[in-house]
Specification:
The structure holds 2 protein chains of 2 kinds. Chain A is α+β, with helices and mostly antiparallel strands. Chain A has helices at 2-7, 17-46, 57-61, 70-75, 100-108, 114-117, 131-135, 167-172, 191-207, 236-241; strands at residues 143-146, 149-151, 157-158, 185-188, 212-217, 220-226, 232-235, 246-247, 249-255, 258-264. The chains are: A alpha+beta, B alpha+beta. The complex binds zinc ion (ZN). Zinc ion (ZN) is lined by residues 32, 34-35, 38, 59, 61-62, 64 of chain B. Zinc ion is lined by residues 32, 34-35, 38, 59, 61-62, 64 of chain B.
Chain lengths: 265, 127
């Protein structure tokens, strides 16, 4: 409501955005200041109880455009989770948003993997996302949309399953070499955080059919995506024999948007 | 793995599938023709008096399942989230079954299908 009010006097489209913002800001400041000063008098004279303005309201509204409500999405079941970039929007950089309290609630009831996943901060410190916001995300990337079910920004779903008990734990096998394992064993660079980011990029490329081969086998889809640069190395016994060559392709095995396994090739 | 115990206890508390598969030797019949990286390992299922009544071959990457020790044959998939043995519907990884021992494989009559070069013990790679 306040966001639309603050935008009503100035059109958003490009051009003299900075200047208009300044003018709008001055007007808004005058209005807000006047309201704040006059509110007690009006209340006293009329017997009304006009609400006070929260201190950070203006600052919050100025960044609210990019913050769709994550609340409804959080409650949605995984079956109705959007497959594509819609799901990425809640993770766009944000400063304190009005929905902060709801996000805190989710942070207070982490899933069973959270204690492991949030251990250690992701290495990338360049994002505008604050540390507090990132700590709400598993591995700084995944949102827990329901207990034990995690959604990536690109829309990849990580759920229970596999011999390891959870797809993320299966994926963890591909963040370390298994030199005694026969055959090849793809290992992602960058630990879990790196693996998850690479998988998201591969998924986006696969959806866009960029440098991707696709095989469909019943419910399963197997993508092999050329990432155009190193994303890991080939381990296992075969990899060791050939001095662990770098891997620049990723194979994704999916059921819908649910990840079954992924590894570098 | 660095912190397997803490993770396992988390899983148990939350009644998520209990991984049974990280400490056993796995005997395999081949590399997976579908994902091309998994090992197709034998599970001994339908245990009666600790003896298997049937076997499965399961890819440890993509979880393709074969009912016979021939991975060129027809494969199926279990449910991705709650995988079950397609024959007796016991949970695939923590039900009335296990990664087959050589004895199990002998009882199943599948010994000739095992490729000893593919035998793998996940614990052997733990640091
Ligand atoms: Zn496979």
């Amino acid at each position: 409501m306040n966001a639309s009010e603050s935008r009503s006097g100035a059109h958003r489209p490009s051009g003299k955005k900075g200047k208009k913002t300044t003018v709008a800001g001055i007007v808004l400041a005058v209005v807000v200041g006047g309201y704040t000063l006059l509110r007690p008098s009006i209340n006293e004279a009329t017997g009304w109880n006009l609400p006070a303005l929260p201190g950070k309201q203006v600052a919050k509204d100025s960044v609210a455009d990019n913050s769709p409500s994550p609340v409804s999405e959080k409650k949605s079941s995984s079956r109705s989770v959007p497959k594509q970039t819609e799901s990425a929007k809640p993770l766009t950089p944000r400063v304190e948003s009005p929905t902060r309290s709801e996000r805190d609630e989710s942070a207070q009831s982490p899933g069973p993997l959270a204690s492991k996943m949030t251990r250690g901060d992701p290495q990338s410190g360049t994002s505008a996302v604050s540390n507090a916001d990132k700590s709400d995300l598993e591995y700084g990337l995944l949102r827990e949309i329901s207990p034990d079910r995690f959604l990536s920004p690109a829309g990849v779903l990580y759920t229970p399953g596999s011999a390891e008990g959870h797809r993320l734990e299966h994926l963890r096998r591909h963040t370390e070499d298994q030199p005694n394992r026969s055959g090849k064993h793809g290992v992602f660079d960058g630990d879990m955080e790196g693996a998850l980011v690479t998988i998201d990029k591969a998924y986006e490329k696969a959806q866009a059919n960029q440098r991707t081969t696709k095989e469909v086998d019943g419910k399963r889809t197997i993508y092999t995506v050329d990432m155009g640069k190193r994303v890991g190395f080939v381990g296992g016994r075969d990899g060791q024999r050939s001095r662990n060559p770098m891997a620049r392709r990723v194979r994704l095995v999916l059921e819908g948007n649910r990840l079954i396994t992924a590894f570098p090739l | 793995m660095a912190q397997p115990e803490s993770f396992r206890s988390c899983l148990e508390v939350n009644s998520v599938t209990h991984p049974d598969s990280n400490s056993d030797v796995r005997h395999s019949v081949g590399s997976c023709p579908i994902c091309e990286q998994g090992l197709c390992s034998i599970r001994a299922c339908g245990l009666v008096d600790d003896k298997p009544s049937h076997g499965l071959v399961v890819c440890d990457e993509c979880e393709a399942i074969w009912l016979q020790p021939n991975v060129q044959g027809v494969h199926i998939y279990a449910d991705a989230e709650t995988p079950k043995c397609p024959i007796d519907q016991s949970p695939l990884y923590h039900g009335n079954n296990r990664w087959a021992t050589l004895d199990d494989i002998d009882r199943l009559g599948w010994s000739d299908a095992v490729n000893p070069d593919l035998t793998y013990q996940p614990d052997s790679d733990d640091s």
